[in-house]
Design a protein that fits this description.
343 residues; 12 strands; 2 domains
Length: 343
């Protein structure tokens, strides 16, 4: 009897083996001139990824993936495709290819950004600091009661030639080729944890100084409400919640966290006319949410939730903190190699 119990416990703790079962996280399917966050996967590469999944893996919906995990019946090679944030290209580029290859996906949408007319803050910073155009030599920004001065110097004058020269730069490189790249890196760190209103004031000031419109570029806009409905039509794409304003939840009070989590769910359910049972934590990395956040997600009526950190999946993995594998703009061969466990 004890031997049988030991076997059952060991089985429940055993990691999935063979080709790993995993949850993939994308953000965008688009061709971008500049992508410092490395969020975009080119449509050609995304099609290659879907071909790999269709041929060598077992794609399934996120909720089915979690249900099988919970029952201890998650098959080897099981993969769930997810998207974060709610960019318009999720409908116009990603869904077209998902339908072509018959691969389901879940799109986690920041409900307050739907039809908002402005870009996510990291995209606004990219346009202001890394696009062609001039900025003042110095700029003072309010960091929530503390003023920080960014020295941009004469190098702030960004010609088309300089713009083209550094177009491939991203945050994962160790170098900052100009002071504007250095400012972008620093501000990304600061803006993540910044109060939303303070961040808006700073973006207004920076946009005005740079002569950049706050209106979203066609290439960087988010979904409209009608597009969210279109995205969720049919059985292939599930809409999941991603809060209202995409905040760092760990920086909010208990009441603010609950409001972001519950209202985001409610807003999306009203848009699509069906229940929303899946959630993804904004940023989703260590320190961006807490145990209290997880409890609030559970209490809000979600069935499962996922983070943005790597990890092996066990049969007892917390279904409210599921790890995901971030996908970059890899070729199909590189994508397959990485899924197999290559580095």
């Amino acid at each position: 009897m004890l031997d049988n119990l030991a076997k059952r416990v060991a089985g429940s703790l055993a990691p999935m083996v063979g080709r790993p079962s995993c949850i993939l996280v994308y953000h965008r399917v688009a061709e971008l001139e500049v992508d410092p966050q490395m969020l975009a996967v080119a449509p050609k590469h995304f099609a290659e990824h879907l071909e790999v999944l269709r041929e060598d893996y077992r794609p399934m919906t996120f909720k089915d993936w979690v249900a099988n995990l919970k029952r201890g019946r998650l098959p080897r090679h099981a993969v769930a495709v997810t998207f974060d944030d709610g960019y318009a290209d999720n409908l116009f580029n990603a869904k077209v290819l998902l339908e072509k290859y018959g691969v389901p996906a879940t799109v986690f949408i920041a409900a307050g950004q739907v039809g908002h007319g402005e870009e996510f803050w990291w995209d606004q910073l990219e346009q202001i600091l890394l696009g062609p155009g001039d900025l003042p030599e110095e700029m003072d920004l309010d960091m929530g009661g503390t003023t920080v001065r960014f020295r941009l110097s004469e190098k702030a004058q960004k010609t088309e030639r300089k713009y083209a020269l550094h177009r491939a730069w991203n945050l994962f490189r160790p170098d900052d080729p100009t002071c504007r790249h250095q400012a972008y890196r620093s501000l990304c760190q600061l803006f993540r944890a910044m109060d939303g209103e303070v961040r808006k004031v700073n973006l207004d000031k920076m946009s005005s100084c740079a002569g950049v419109s706050r209106q979203a570029r066609a290439t960087h806009r988010t979904l409209s409400e009608l597009e969210v409905k279109d995205l969720s039509s049919g059985e292939l794409v599930e809409v999941g919640a991603h809060t209202v304003t995409h905040p760092m939840l760990s920086r909010l009070s208990s009441d603010q966290q609950r409001a972001e989590i519950r209202l985001g769910k409610q807003m999306l359910e009203e848009m699509i006319g069906r229940r929303v049972g899946s959630f993804a934590y904004p940023y989703g990395t260590a320190g961006s949410y807490t145990a209290e956040t997880v409890a609030s997600v559970r209490d809000a009526g979600f069935d499962q939730a996922c983070s943005n950190f790597e990890g092996r999946v066990w049969r007892l993995t917390d279904r409210y903190q599921l790890p995901r594998t971030v996908v970059r703009n890899w070729s199909g061969d590189e994508f397959a190699r990485r899924l197999e466990g290559g580095s």
